[in-house]
Known about the structure:
The chain has helices at 35-45, 58-65, 95-104, 134-145, 169-176, 197-205, 227-238; strands at 9-13, 50-53, 70-73, 78-80, 88-89, 115-118, 123-126, 151-156, 159-164, 186-191, 209-213, 222-224. The protein is α/β, with parallel strands linked by helices and 242 residues long. An 8-stranded mixed β-sheet has the order 5-4-3-2-1-10-11-12, with helices on both faces. It has a 4-stranded antiparallel β-sheet with strand order 6-7-9-8, with helices on one face.
Amino acid sequence: MTPPVPDRPALFLDFDGTLVEIADRPDGVVVAPSLHDLIERAVARTDGAVAVVSGRPVKEIDRFLGIPIAAAGMHGLEFRRTPGGEIEHQPAPPEMDTLRKRIADFPFMGSSGVVMEDKGAGLAVHYRAEPSRQEDVVAAMDRATEDLDTLHLIHGKMVVEAKRRGFDKGAAVRAFLERAPFAGRTPIFIGDDVTDEDGIRAANAAGGYGIKVGEGSTDAPHRLPDVAAVHAWLAALAGVPA
Length: 242
């Protein structure tokens, strides 16, 4: 069943796997030419109540979308409340430097298709180009962070990311809902990964709902099969002619 569209929605959109297909490397995603216009129309339809909530830094989201909408980056470590507004940054804990050095010493880094994405306040190790390394990456990241108490590991699709404790996509959604133009609207969180479940639960709890993209267990009451279906649903919401 196609997810419904409430009268006054507030949209919270994951990026990778939701607005764009996941690529082997973070810089390898391809943005559909129509996505820019689609997002602009959704922003107009909701009176500005659209935010991207992603594990990526906000500046990367801007670069790919080409439109500086409200956004929470790095699972909430970066926060921009309004389009073009100031980006609020949570500082990286000192332990991040320790972890950076430990990851560089992983024996499988670099030559096996496993790569580190350095976000400053967060460090992600991707193994999408080498899925057989999953157990190695997970075990190595567990060992590397077991004595670093300020850090928390997030396990996503073919990636393990370390970040400061206390920040997630659900907290970002709740922060957006405190202020206009999001306050008083029905929140909808759309995401594909386990890291999106915090956002989905926050939307559910605030009287809205989550939409899960693709397969897998979820707390979302609605589901769309893939990125193309997300674009089609957004187009219907925004009144884009079929």
